[in-house]
Write a structure and sequence with these properties.
The protein is an alpha/beta fold. Helix content is 29%, strand content 21%. A six-stranded mixed β-sheet has the order 2-15-14-18-16-17. The protein has a five-stranded parallel β-sheet with strand order 1-12-11-10-13, with helices on both faces. Strands 3-9-8-5 form a four-stranded antiparallel β-sheet, with no helix packed on it. The protein binds iron/sulfur cluster (2 copies).
Length: 444
């Protein structure tokens, strides 16, 4: 095991505010009476429900079948009876098909949850287990893991990297996982290495997590290199992590495999371990409940489908002056207008802010200071992309490489005029992608 120091050029230093939860252990949230499990909580095609109202289900049982190759199976997080299969409001603001299950509080596991002998498993077996278990990127991206671990034919992979940066302010879920379950993180990495024929694996962790670095270093053997990354946002962005560790730049529009890399989040690696060693699908995850607007911040292990309102109640409720609830972190998370939506595989955090911390300054005119340009880790010109987006000139926004934006929020954070840069750029990306899709369909 070798520990090295690494980072990337640029980036910002927002207030990290990890103090709310960084010293807390992971706590199991008490089971709830009913879970609402969305059939779309990953990138790719939604799942088709394979249970009906009135069916009895076991914990870990398949309830939603992947709707294509880029999709991920969905499993019950409790044992009980299906109360409904119907559309419910989800955190993306959409009405999404959900399987609603009344919990019998027995936690009767399904037959598939059983330990495997890793030595007897072939690579094909491991791929099949990962796909069946519905694993997705648990850092928030929710990209199906079996797809990520199957790089395009002919691609030469020489770096398998685990992302333990957790650079989003406030969030400490990955930190807690690395401290409490380092054997799962390293075990998952070794399974991925086996799958991709790698003799060496790499883990990058930001320097503000010394206990996590120590826990991982203690278990890392000569096949694992641990990198202490500078504490800088967005160090956990896949592309910037690759640059920090390998010095390679992922070209515009390309995937990490284009530069020989596969990157997974540390929580995803732990879920690979759970699935391959113990036959456990993804039906729970670690969630940081934090901020000035929650009475008792916690790091919780939560069953998928638990309502956000119930998680908040479990943490003592919102403070009297709470003003905003964001799912995820303050830089890349999404503000919610209601907490009556379920936690999904992608719910890394519930950030509750009081009125003071949630206050948004009124935007003023751009003063052409170029601070947003200096802060952009993708070397874009955010002010132009946002301005063209606001003028509905999406072709021009595309010329300024709007699609390369990783929506990290660094530009908006440094902007003295408080321009709504990210929301404008998101609109441009959506419109450009829709137009290109339409053009491709017309060609067909
Ligand atoms: S333009 Fe996109 S990538 Fe660049 S700083 Fe803004 S949000 Fe981040
Ligand atoms: S940081 Fe804000 S004010 Fe300065 S150039 Fe960018 S958009 Fe304009």
């Amino acid at each position: 095991m070798v520990t090295k120091r690494a980072t990337f050029k640029g980036g910002i230093h927002p207030a990290y505010n990890k103090h709310y939860t960084e010293s807390l252990n992971i706590e199991d949230m008490a089971p709830v009476k009913q879970v609402v499990i969305p059939m779309a909580m990953h990138i790719g095609a939604p799942c088709s429900p394979v249970v009906n109202k009135g069916d009895k289900v076991k914990m870990g049982q398949l309830i939603g079948k992947a709707g294509g190759f880029v999709s991920a199976n969905i499993h019950s997080s409790v044992s009980g009876v299906v109360a409904a299969v119907e559309k419910r409001l989800t955190s993306d603001g959409q009405m999404t098909m959900c399987v609603v299950i009344d919990n019998d509080f027995e936690d009767t596991p399904c037959d598939e949850i059983k330990s495997h002998d890793i030595e007897r498993l072939t690579k094909e077996d491991i791929k099949e287990i990962i796909a069946s278990a519905g694993l997705v990127g648990l850092g928030g991206a929710t990209f199906p893991t079996h797809v990520k671990l199957a790089p395009p034919e002919g691609t030469k992979i020489d770096h398998v990297i685990l992302n333990g940066a957790e650079c989003e302010p406030y969030l400490t879920s990955d930190d807690a996982l690395m401290k409490e379950y380092p054997e799962k993180v390293i075990g998952g990495l070794k399974i991925i290495m086996k799958l991709l024929d790698q003799q060496k694996g790499y883990i990058g962790i930001e320097s503000n997590k010394p206990a996590a670095i120590a826990a991982i270093e203690k278990l890392a053997d000569e096949t694992i290199e641990v990198y202490t990354l500078d504490t800088k946002y967005p160090q956990g962005s896949e592309k910037h992590l690759i640059t920090a560790i390998t010095g390679r730049e992922v070209p515009s529009g390309a995937l990490p495999s284009a530069v020989g890399c596969v990157v997974s989040n540390t929580a995803t690696a732990a879920s690979v371990y759970d699935a391959v060693m113990n036959g456990k699908p993804v039906y729970e995850r670690i969630v940081t409940v934090t901020g000035s607007g929650i009475k008792t911040p916690k790091v919780l292990k939560v069953r998928i489908g638990t309502m956000i309102s119930e998680i908040i109640e479990f943490c003592g409720g919102l403070t009297d002056d709470a003003k905003k609830v964001i799912l995820g972190g303050p830089m890349m998370g999404f503000a919610q207008y209601t907490t009556d939506v379920p936690a999904t595989k992608g719910t890394s955090g519930i950030l509750c802010l009081n009125a003071k911390d949630a206050a948004i300054q009124e935007p003023s005119n751009c003063i052409k200071c170029a601070k947003c340009v200096g802060a952009c880790p993708m070397h874009l010109m955010p002010m132009y992309i946002a301005a063209y987006s606001q003028k509905l000139d999406y072709d021009k926004a595309a010329e300024y490489n709007a699609l390369d934006c990783i929506e990290c929020g660094s530009c908006a954070y440094v902007c003295p005029a408080k321009r709504p840069l990210v929301s404008a750029i998101r609109v441009a990306k959506r419109e450009i992608t829709a137009k290109r899709k339409k053009e491709q369909e017309a060609k067909k």
